[in-house]
Amino acid sequence: MTLQSQPESDSSGRPSLIGRFIGPSLTKTVASADRTALIGLLVANLMPIIFALLFRWDIGGVAMFYWWENIVIGMYAILRIALAAGKQGSVETPKYTKIFLVPFFCFHYFFFCMVHGVFLLVFFVGPESTESIGRGDMDLPGPLFVLPVFGSVMSTAWNSLPTAGVFSVGLLLGSHGLSFARNFLARGEFKNAVPVIEMFRPYGRIVLLHLSILFGGFVTLIFGSPLLLVFLLMVGKTALDVAVHSATHRLQRSHSPSEQRIRSCHRPRWTPRRKLVRQSAAGHLTVFA
Prior knowledge:
Helix content: 55-70%
Largest sheet: 2 strands, antiparallel
Number of helices: 8
Structural class: mainly alpha
Shape: globular
Oligomer: single chain
Mean pLDDT: 75
Order of helices and strands: EHHEEHHHHHHEEE
């Protein structure tokens, strides 16, 4: 007996319309979406490495460049939370929940980015770079007082970008946007995405990536920020980014509506082969399946 994967068949045993047309189409779409998003991710990470070699980026410029990726990830996380339509268990998430989750995410995520940005500026750019932070209007009510501080951090981080850094941030914006459009929207990941889970999803990625960047950054700083170590740091970050991206979307793809339809159109069936019986010279029966 052998295991074969066949298109879905109707009662007559012939491949159904879904199995013949929709199944292959979905398979091609899913593969194309994953490949396109991965290529975009590679381009957005490899081009800055080329710029780093051409314009001799130091560790401060690299740290600020990757800090801006946090901001880009947060921007698309807001869209993911707002568009997530999955159920938490068997209970559908009320729509009014997002009205609370989106501003709550904006506060705690970008507050985290603000503190992280100040840390990077102090250690990798220089303490003098933070002198202008917090000199704005601090009389805003409640938690809004952090807005001018965060604005100062963003302004300082923007001015600390290396040559071609602005263009590189634009590549990151386009890469994450491509992944959002191809994976989250086109492949239907939003249908199974839960708003609360999407709210905390960015932390796992940025903590893992930036712990590696911080460790590599301190090592690079100890040796005087040589270009070789900066290059190795960026290559290592790119490899880790690709691995995290692939693992994340592979997990989400296993629960996506498109993947479930593909499985239903190509479900495995046990197809027995004709058994052949032959009598050997010794008189024993040999069975071939």
